[in-house]
Amino acid sequence: MEVLKVSAHSQPKSVAGALAAVLRDRATAEIQAVGAGAVNQAVKAIAITRGFVAPNGIDLVVVPAFSEIQIDGEDRTAIKFIVEPR
After folding, report:
1. Which residues, including other chains, have CB under 8 Å from residue 54's CB and lie 6 or more apart?
2. Which domains does the chain have, with CATH numbers?
3. What's the pTM value of the predicted model, to 2 decimals?
4. pLDDT tens series, the chain, 86 aa
5. Spatial distance between the Cα atoms of 3 and 31, rounded to a whole number of angstroms
6. Using an 8 Å Cβ cutoff, are 80 and 66 in contact?
């Protein structure tokens, strides 16, 4: 499964384009975000992606979950969004 990492400074439209490309190649993608700003950008990107893939007859389902990751040797909790077609 492809993992796209989103930060608070990520451009939602750019993330949406990458997510749409992954979904066209594979059936499932994962977006990973740490912090409120990153989660905000990720949710915007998912909404934009729905518009990108809708003309192809693809409707998206998103499953949010927690994930434990390490950043610079420090344990952090990330939100992961598993995105797949309905």
Report:
1. none
2. 2-85 (3.30.110.20)
3. 0.90
4. 778 999 999 999 999 999 999 988 888 999 999 999 999 999 999 999 999 998 888 899 999 999 998 889 999 999 999 999 98
5. 6
6. yes
